[in-house]
Amino acid sequence: MSIKETAREMLAKAALEKASDIFITAGSPPMFKKDGSIKPIADFRLMPNDTAELIEEIFDMSTGHVFQDFLKTGDCDFSFSVYGVGRFRINAFRQRNSIAAVVRVVQLTLPDPKELGIPDAVFNLYKKTRGLVLVTGPAGAGKSTTLACIIDAINSKKNNHILTLEDPVE
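Now predict its structure.
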């Protein structure tokens, strides 16, 4: 990666390499998280103007999210798609007098629930006809993927109305 690489190129590289996250932080090189390990993808450190440029480009790729609004509030969460590249979820925030972001790469296909190790007791929640299901846990624990697998089972095996609440909506 070069200092002139665009955010789009960084997103494409992350999707191609099956990274789960991209970290954009001033004072550090850009980094990918892959297979649980965080590693730099460049041999230079991003400066505050570099992070602002990359994050502004990400805002420009999304629809309905304005970089200037983010600068006023200092925090923004949203998801977006880049045609031909993939789908992403971003958390942009203020940190140490600069801005930073964590970008989650959202896989376009669902893995097999058995391969993920989702217990049958959890996966079989799709069979329930009543009730409320809350899925909680730390970032990167697989909450969205688990829910996507359960919702996929409902969609393929039942004729029900599904209501989900999440922020950002995917």
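The mean pLDDT is 86.
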